[in-house]
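pipeline stage [seq->struct] | target=diguanylate cyclase | organism=Bradyrhizobium sediminis | residues=563
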Amino acid sequence: MSRVSFNRKRVKLKKLLGIRARLALLGLILVAPLMLERARSLEDTRSKQIALASTEFAGLAKHSADMQREVISSVETVLKSAAYIRASDGGVGRSCDIMRASLPANLPWIRSLMIVGGDGRIQCSTNNMYVGLDLSDRPYLTKARETRNFVFSDFLLARPNNTPIVMAAYPVSAINRDADAVVLAGVNLDWMSNIMGNLGNRPGISAVLIDSAGTVLAAPSDQASMIGHPLDTVPLLSAIAEKAIGSDKTEGSLSFVAADGLRRMVTFARVSGTQSRLIVSIDEARVSAAINREIRTAYLQLGFVCVFVLLGALVAAEKLIIQPIEMMAATATRFGQGEWSVRAARGSLPAEFVPLARAFNAMAAQLGKRERELVATNDRLTVMASIDMLSGLANRRGFQSRLDFEWMKALQNDSELSLLMIDVDHFKLFNDTYGHPEGDACLTRLGETLAGIAAETMGFAGRYGGEEFCLLLPNTDARRALEIGEMVRSAVLNLALPHCTSSYQTVTVSVGVACTRPNEKQQPGDLVEAADAALYAAKHRGRNAVVEHGFVRLSDGGMALAS
């Protein structure tokens, strides 16, 4: 019982793992890895995109910081030139005139140039509305005089119009220690923001330039509202305000969790010659938002495709494979049972099975013809198996079949049957003298001669073996057989085939003749034996002779060979 149960389970398992299940599994094997590879590729793309964005914006931040430095450097150069003029000239009026005339038009970020005297009041300016203003309380002015070096201020509201501005100062005492004047330049914050334009309008990117106090000096146009506000009031950057401002490093990176709960990467770079810092923040979630949507879509597509492939494989297997196979199998079964006229209906089969159906129908249509051809071929093969290819006569097998047939026929008709055994005289010497090709040619000529005589006498000629031939003569008595034997000997002699080692100088044959009336006590072999004995006697009589050895009836009714 356990073995029967096992076999049943095996049959069920085979059905379960049939062609439908295999096609469905094949579909999944083909599709699922492609979809999973696409999802994995998108995951890799997301990681690379975030890394590339970090690298790109770190480079952009450094580039922007370098451009800010170049702007400040150009301002410093202009201030040093004005300070040198003031130190060289010594007079306020003349140096002011030169300063107004030399304000570079190609430096639009310089809003105005001013000279402040020792009392902290503006003595002259490229903008007359600033003349006389008291700036003695400005920290940058005091620091410039103390350090005797270039100073870049933090965020300011300009007097008297309260517009946002950054001031740059350079003391004349750096050139002439006795001078107490300081040259000032107002820097336009709009131009500093314009330099950061390549950092704006990027999803997930925040970029600002801050001063030493953490106030936003410049920002891209889409974030211009942050200018003038402390960094710790910016929601997404407040978490790193203290670290970015307090760091002594020229540049660096920070990772933090913003107020919205998302992790962000921050890159900062100090603007050379100032306490200002450029800060670029990258929101990984927003940077990779598009690729994240593609990844979710890819997984959804994977699910839908798998379901679709399963259903499609089952339906396709049933309609396109299972049913056509069952139909072809049923047709083949009927054909195998002998319904030779059955044909596969091509119209109801899928296009892929039409060539198979066409081939099957062609096979069925030609099967009868093939069978007839096979019978004919077998007949030809039978004939070929009974023919000696050299002489063109029947071979020994063919001769034996004909002898059996004629023996049975003579036995039924109580008629006589004669046999001539013919041997070429000294044929070995002929071969040794002329060679085997000539020997074959000789046998061919003899075969043609015997075939002609057999046609005239209604006999059957064959090559019994080697140089020995035979001629079977139905309905022929001994006298007529002897005549035909002499006809054979003379015909061969008249061929005049040269044979220098023969006493006759031509090819000759010896003929043994035997004749009998077949009965139940005789066998066909007895006739062959009698003809062989007669042939042996002909050779002993000098060859080129015809000798008969007949049968004699014994007293007990049997037959014996006559000597």
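stage status: PASS
auto-comment: The chain has a mean pLDDT of 76. DSSP finds 14 helices and 18 strands in the chain.
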